[in-house]
């Protein structure tokens, strides 16, 4: 496996929104999606004017907005959660406000680029060292990359777990590069100064057994939604759009210091119009991921494709089936879920047939995404494991 794992700058906040409150909170979600709008409501002297987590061209370093049949889930820079989302939340009546969960712990984002391994194998290889180190994670597979959320407080354990797996830490201490053949030494096995309350699993079989025992205890079921078919797509590279449309003259005569106003010239405006249209429709399923080094990535209900016209690239003729695991009854500190579920599915199928397996973690659910044939086999594996007395 040829992989690089990097820490993205900043800390991030995870937000759970019940579906019945999604329309109520759509406006702050759109304000987060469109950072251009944020400066309009504040004076330049206020701390809200310069929100963190944006790139030099005022786009999000990382943002995920996911609407599924279970919930709406958001991962955004903590600065945006505090200064944009929470004021809107505080304006709601208390019962509505209490139904929304803004996670107190902040998260780091690990960005993973890799080659030479199928998506199912990547989920396993990337989640397993963290699972065996007892680190809770959220995993997001996108069109180009994989992203892993880990609690900020666990950074040192994450570093040690990756080093023990054979990753090398770069000079700037933010990147891990290609793992190589590696024999751990005594210092690598000390994954935490404070030993976990429960000893970590010793092998894959034990990890999987623990995972399904936990899911069974909380009565988690694997289910599919009737007639819900997904496609994984991407927006186009912005430089390709520039070549296609040419450079648009600026309407502004302001100095380059007011660079925020040029945000619109650095995105595909057609794609963003389509994304807003899809979000306003309260889609059945839409997961949007923005990351600074990738074009926008979308995993969406196939019935939304007409909204996007020709603004997407990817296999729009293909069909992916999501299998949902409602994890609302589990603690966010639960570990090994991603690795345990993915590992059991890979084990139960021909590895060559599991290449399309990908995973989406939202705040209170896990979604395994597979081809239609693979999803049938996956349900045959998961259903008995999640049925009491079987």
Automatic annotation (TrEMBL):
<dbReference type="InterPro" id="IPR045865">
    <property type="entry name" value="ACT-like_dom_sf"/>
</dbReference>
<dbReference type="InterPro" id="IPR027795">
    <property type="entry name" value="CASTOR_ACT_dom"/>
</dbReference>
<protein>
    <recommendedName>
        <fullName>CASTOR ACT domain-containing protein</fullName>
    </recommendedName>
</protein>
<dbReference type="GO" id="GO:0006520">
    <property type="term" value="P:amino acid metabolic process"/>
</dbReference>
<feature type="region of interest" description="Disordered">
    <location>
        <begin position="178"/>
        <end position="206"/>
    </location>
</feature>
<dbReference type="Pfam" id="PF13840">
    <property type="entry name" value="ACT_7"/>
</dbReference>
<feature type="domain" description="CASTOR ACT">
    <location>
        <begin position="104"/>
        <end position="162"/>
    </location>
</feature>
<feature type="compositionally biased region" description="Polar residues">
    <location>
        <begin position="178"/>
        <end position="195"/>
    </location>
</feature>
<dbReference type="GO" id="GO:0046394">
    <property type="term" value="P:carboxylic acid biosynthetic process"/>
</dbReference>
<dbReference type="InterPro" id="IPR051719">
    <property type="entry name" value="CASTOR_mTORC1"/>
</dbReference>
């Amino acid at each position: 496996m040829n992989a690089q794992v990097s820490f993205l700058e900043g800390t991030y906040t995870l937000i759970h929104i019940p579906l019945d409150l999604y329309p109520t909170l759509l406006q702050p979600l759109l304000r987060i999606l469109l950072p251009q709008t944020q400066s309009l409501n504040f004076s330049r002297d206020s701390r809200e004017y310069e929100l963190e987590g944006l790139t030099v061209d005022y786009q999000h370093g990382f943002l995920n907005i996911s609407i599924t049949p279970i919930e709406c889930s958001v991962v955004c820079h903590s600065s945006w959660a505090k200064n944009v989302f929470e004021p809107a939340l505080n304006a709601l009546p208390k019962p509505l406000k209490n139904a929304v969960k803004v996670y107190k712990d902040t998260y780091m984002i690990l960005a993973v680029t890799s080659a030479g391994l199928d998506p199912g194998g990547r989920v396993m290889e990337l989640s397993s060292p963290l699972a065996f180190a007892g680190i809770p994670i959220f995993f997001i597979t996108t069109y180009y990359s994989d992203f892993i959320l880990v609690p900020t407080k666990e950074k040192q354990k994450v570093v040690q777990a990756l080093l023990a797996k054979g990753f090398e830490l770069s000079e700037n201490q933010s990147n891990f590069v290609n793992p190589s053949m590696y024999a751990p030494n005594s210092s690598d096995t000390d994954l935490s100064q404070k030993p976990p309350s429960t000893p970590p699993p010793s092998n894959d079989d034990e990890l999987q057994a623990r995972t399904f025992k936990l899911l069974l205890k909380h009565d988690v079921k694997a289910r599919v939604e009737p007639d819900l078919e997904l496609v994984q797509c991407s927006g186009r590279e912005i430089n390709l759009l520039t070549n296609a449309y040419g450079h648009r003259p600026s309407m502004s005569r302001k100095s380059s210091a007011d660079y925020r106003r040029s945000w619109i010239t650095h995105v595909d405006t057609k794609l963003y119009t389509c994304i807003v249209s899809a979000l306003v429709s309260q889609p059945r399923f839409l997961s949007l991921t923005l990351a600074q080094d990738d074009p926008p990535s979308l995993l969406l209900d196939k019935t939304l494709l007409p909204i996007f016209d020709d603004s997407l690239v990817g296999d729009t003729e293909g069909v992916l089936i999501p299998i949902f695991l409602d994890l609302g009854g589990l603690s966010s500190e639960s570990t090994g879920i991603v690795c345990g579920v993915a590992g059991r599915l890979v084990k139960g199928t021909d590895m060559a047939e599991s290449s399309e397996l990908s995973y989406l973690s939202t705040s209170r659910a896990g979604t395994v995404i597979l081809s239609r044939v693979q999803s049938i086999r996956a349900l045959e594996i998961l259903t008995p494991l999640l049925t009491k007395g079987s």
